[in-house]
Design goal:
2 copies of one chain form a homodimer. Chain A folds into 3 domains: about 10-130, Gyrase A, domain 2; about 145-220 and about 405-455, Four Helix Bundle (Hemerythrin (Met), subunit A) (Up-down Bundle), CATH 1.20.120.430; about 225-375, Rossmann fold. In chain A, about 45% of the residues lie in helices and about 15% in strands. Chain A has helices at about 30-35, 95-105, 115-125, 130-140, 145-155, 160-180, 195-220, 235-245, 285-300, 310-315, 325-345, 385-395, 410-430, 435-455, 460-465; strands at about 10, 20-25, 40, 55-60, 65-75, 85-90, 110, 225-230, 265-270, 270-275, 305-310, 350-355, 375. In chain A, the strands form 2 sheets. In chain A, strands 3-4-5-6-2-1-7 form a 7-stranded mixed beta sheet. Chain A has a 6-stranded mixed beta sheet with strand order 9-10-8-11-12-13, sandwiched between helices. In chain A, a hairpin with an 8-residue loop joins β1 and β2. The radius of gyration of chain A is 30 Å and the shape is flat. Mean pLDDT of chain A is about 85; it is low at about 245-265 and about 400-405. The interface between A and B is large, with 65 and 65 residues.
C-alpha cells in the first residue's frame, strides 16, 4: 500500500464564479504551510496553536502581496475528513483568485490532489471503509431522492457493518478450522459443527438478500428503465413533456443552475426513470424492418416496465374520430401486445391510452383489460398524475423502506455474488460431511470477497479503479 | 432605510457538482433555526451554546429523514460577515442535496436571499462602507492581476478611508461656518480662514488626483483598449493567437474550468487588454468605405494604444518577397500613419512589423523610426514577448505602484467629479472673498457627494442599484 506523506491541495467547490470558493489542503504539514502564508486580521497567532475546528479571518499573502481576505478553518489530525491535518481556505469566488492562491501553495511544497485523493486518504487512515468511501462519490452524483437515500445509507455504513460483522464471525470459525488441520492426526474438532453450519446458513441468507437487492438498488441508482412503444404520432414526446412538468424534485431555485434535459431521463416523485424509445413491433415486411424489430425486443429486454402508448381513437371503433387507418394500428397493437406478453411474462406492462380528449364514444377491446389501463390526454395533461403514481408504485410498494439495506454498486454486487458462491460450496461441503480441509479453500475465498467490499482486502489497482472516478477535491 | 429582521439563506458556492457546496444563512434566528434541524455526530449540543467561529460535524435532518452529513460553521453576531448571526453549512456537492437542504430551510421560516443581500446587510450593520461593499463584487469578478489588486485595495478601505478623513475635516469647518451664520449680525469668524483655505486646497488636490486616476483605474478594470489596424491578410488573428499563448495568468489547473476565449480580450502579464479590430484607413472610393473609415476613427478614439500591423515584405522594397501589390499597401500605410498621428497626437502608436521570417533584405522607410517598432513573426512566435513587454510597460511604468489609491468605479468617479466641482466653487469663493453664506451651499454639495461614495449618505434606490448587480449568495 502506498504511504502518503505529502500535503495536497485542491479546489473543493465547483469551478466558476460564486460568492465563495473553498480550497482544501490535507497532510501532516498542511497547517504549517498555510500558517506561513496567513496573516490574521485581528491578532496573529500561529495556526498550530489554535483549537481544532476553529475558523480564522485574515489574509493570504504571497510575500508582501495580499492575494485575498479569507476564512481559514483548521481541522487537526485525527479529527478531520482525511484523518490528517486539514485546512479549508474560504476565498472570494473568483476563478482568478482561486487560481492565485492555489498557485501560491503549489509553489511552496504542496502537490495538487489527484481525483478522489482526499477520500482515498480518509480510507487509508481508517476514517471510513471502502464501501463508505465509494458512497461519497455516489452521494455527490445523486440526483434523485432514491439514489440520494441509497448513497447516504451506504455512507453511514449500514451495509458494510453487516458485512463486517458476518466476516468477523466467519474469521473466528475459519481460524478454529485451520487449527484443526494443524492437529489433523489427532482428529479433534475445535469448531462446533452445529454452530458453524448455522453461521453459514445465516451468511448465505444475508448474502442472498443483498445480491437480490442489487436488481432494485442498481435500478434506483441508474434509473428504472421504461420501454415506450408507440406509433410515431401517438404523442410520445408530448407525454414526456407532460411528465417533465411533474418533475418538481430537481433544482429550480438555485440561481444559475441549468439542467441538461435528456429527453428520456426523468425524476418522478424522487425516483429516476430512464425512458427508452422503441420503434414498435410489426409484422416485418423487409430486412430493415426485421432489424428494427430485433432492436425493439432487445430494448424491451432491458426494461423493467413496458409502456404501451396507443391512440384512444384507434382503440375505440365506435368513436367518431376512428378512421380506416386506425384499423391497422389497432390490429398491430393487439398482435404486438400478445407477443410481448408471451416473450416477457415477467415485465410489467402498462397500457396508456392517449388522446382521450378526442373520444366521444368508448368501446375498447375486451382483452385490453387484462393489463392496467391509464387513460390520459398528454396534450391537456389529464391523467398524468395517475400514470406517475402507477410508475412510482412499481418501485415503492414495500420495496424502499427507510432503513432497508440495499446494494447499488456493481463492484459490491460482483464481490457479494462471488462470496455467495463460495459460501454455497462451503454449505454443500458441510451437508455432504466432506473432510475439513476441503472447506478451507472456499471459506478463504468467501473471506476474500467479503473483505474486498469493505476494503479490508485491497490492491493498488482496485483503489485506483475506484478513486479515479471521483472528482478532484473530494 | 429598510430594517432587516428575517433570516436569509443562499448557496454561496458556484452551482454545479463539486466535492462540497456551502449554504449560508444570516439573521438573528439563523443559529436557532439550523439547530432545530441539526444533530451532532458525536455529542448533541445546542448550537447556541457553542463558541463563535467553531465547526461542528453532524447531520441535517428533515424530521427523521437524514438529508446529509455536513459541517456547520457558527459565526455569532457581531463577529460575522454580515454582523448578524451567520451559519455556513458545508454539504456534499450534489445540486440535489443542496436543493433539498435549501428547501428544508425555506419551508421553515427562512427566506431566499436577494442578490447581494449578505453584503448589503454587512453594509447596513456597519461592517464595511459602501465602497468596500462594491469592491466585494469587483473582487469576485476580477480576472487579472490588476483588476484583482484594485478590488482588494478598495475592499481594504485605502481609498474610502482617505475620503472619510477629508470629509470629517470638511464637516468640522462646515459646522463652524454654519455657526457663524447664526451669529451673522455680530460678524464673528469661528472658522480660521487660513486653515480652511488650506483644507480646501488639500481636498481639491486629493480629489483631482483621484478623479485623474480613474482614467487608468477604469482601464485596468475593464481592459486597456488597443486598436489594431492592419490589412486583412497581415496576420491579425495569428498575432492574437500568439499573444493568447503568452497568457499564463488564467486558470489551467482547476479541473473543469473552461475559459470562453473572446478573441479580442487577453490578459497579458496580469493586465487585461481589449483588442479592437478596425477596418483600416484608406482614401475612400465610395460611400461604404467612407462609413468604414469613420468607424475606424471612432474606434481609434476609444483606444489608449494603436497597434499598426504591417507586412515586412510591404515595408522593405529591396526584399525579394516585395511585390507590386505591396506598393499600394506601403503607400496607404504611410498616409494612414500620418493621419492618425495628426488626429490623435496623445495616442501611443506601436508599429508591429509581421512576417519578418520572409525577409532577406531590409530597408524600411526612414519615417517609420519615429515610432517604436517591434519586429515579429506571429507564425513562428518570434518577437511576441517584446510586444507584450511594450504593451504592459505602457501601463506599468510607474503608474501601478502597489499601494497607490486608484478609482476604478464609475459611480465613485461621478461622485468625486461632482465633489471636485463643488470644492472648486468653494475655492473660488474663498479667493474672491465672497460672503460666508455663499460658501455653505457648495460645501454641503461637496459633503453630499463625498458621503455618497462611502455610503454615509444613501438612498434605497442607490443601494438597489449597487446590490442588484451582485450574485445571489454574496
Amino acid at each position: 500500500m502506498k504511504i502518503y506523506q505529502d500535503t495536497i491541495i485542491a479546489l473543493a467547490t465547483p469551478a466558476g464564479s460564486g460568492a465563495i470558493g473553498v480550497l482544501r489542503l490535507s497532510g501532516s504539514d498542511a497547517i504549517n504551510i498555510v500558517d506561513k502564508h496567513f496573516e490574521g486580521k485581528f491578532k496573529t497567532k500561529n495556526l498550530n496553536d489554535v483549537a481544532s475546528h476553529s475558523i480564522h479571518l485574515g489574509f493570504i499573502k504571497d510575500g508582501e502581496r495580499v492575494l485575498d481576505e479569507v476564512l481559514v478553518s483548521i481541522f487537526k489530525t485525527p479529527h478531520s475528513y482525511t484523518g490528517e491535518n486539514v485546512v479549508e481556505i474560504s476565498v472570494h469566488g473568483s476563478p482568478y483568485i482561486q487560481q492565485q492562491v492555489l498557485q501560491l501553495f503549489l509553489k511552496n511544497g504542496v502537490r495538487h490532489a489527484k481525483a478522489g485523493e482526499f477520500t482515498l486518504r480518509a480510507f487509508l487512515n481508517g476514517k471510513m471503509d471502502l464501501s463508505q468511501a465509494e458512497a461519497v462519490a455516489d452521494l455527490i452524483a445523486s440526483d434523485s431522492a432514491s439514489s440520494h437515500q441509497l448513497a447516504l445509507q451506504q455512507m453511514r455504513g449500514n451495509f458494510s457493518n453487516e458485512i463486517k460483522k458476518l466476516r468477523e464471525e466467519l474469521i473466528h470459525f475459519a481460524s478454529l478450522i485451520e487449527l484443526e488441520l494443524d492437529f489433523a492426526e489427532e482428529d479433534v474438532e475445535f469448531a462446533d459443527r452445529k454452530q458453524f453450519a448455522d453461521l453459514v446458513q445465516r451468511i448465505k441468507q444475508t448474502l442472498k438478500k443483498l445480491v437480490d437487492s442489487f436488481a432494485l438498488g442498481n435500478v434506483l441508482k441508474e434509473g428504472v428503465p421504461v420501454a415506450i412503444i408507440g406509433e410515431p404520432n401517438v404523442g410520445k414526446s408530448t407525454l414526456l413533456n407532460a411528465l417533465l412538468n411533474e418533475d418538481k424534485a430537481i433544482v429550480s431555485n438555485i440561481a444559475g443552475t441549468t439542467r441538461d434535459v435528456i429527453e428520456d431521463d426523468l425524476v418522478l416523485d424522487g425516483i429516476r426513470f430512464r425512458f427508452i424509445d422503441t420503434a414498435g413491433i410489426r409484422v416485418a415486411q423487409d430486412e430493415i424492418e426485421k432489424i428494427g424489430i430485433r432492436k425493439t425486443f432487445e430494448k424491451i429486454k432491458e426494461a423493467k416496465v413496458v409502456v404501451f402508448l396507443i391512440d384512444a381513437c384507434a382503440l375505440s371503433q365506435s368513436a367518431s374520430c376512428h378512421t380506416d387507418q386506425h384499423e391497422a394500428v389497432l390490429q398491430a397493437f393487439e398482435t404486438e401486445l400478445q407477443k410481448i406478453a408471451q416473450k416477457y411474462p415477467e415485465k410489467k406492462i402498462l397500457i396508456v391510452v392517449n388522446k382521450i380528449d378526442k373520444l366521444d364514444q368508448k368501446d375498447y377491446p375486451e382483452e385490453l383489460y387484462k393489463y392496467p389501463i391509464i387513460e390520459i390526454s398528454a396534450k391537456y395533461k389529464t391523467g398524468i398524475e395517475k400514470l406517475v403514481a402507477q410508475l412510482t408504485d412499481l418501485v415503492n410498494k414495500g420495496q424502499l423502506a427507510q432503513n432497508e439495506v440495499m446494494v447499488s454498486n456493481a463492484r459490491h454486487f460482483q464481490a457479494l455474488s462471488e462470496a455467495l458462491e463460495s459460501i454455497m460450496q462451503v454449505d454443500a461441503a458441510i451437508q455432504a460431511q466432506l473432510p475439513t480441509d476441503l472447506l478451507t479453500v472456499d471459506i478463504r475465498a468467501a473471506l476474500h470477497s467479503l473483505g474486498e467490499i469493505t476494503g479490508e482486502i485491497t490492491t493498488d489497482d482496485l483503489l485506483d479503479n475506484i478513486f479515479r472516478n471521483f472528482c478532484i477535491g473530494k
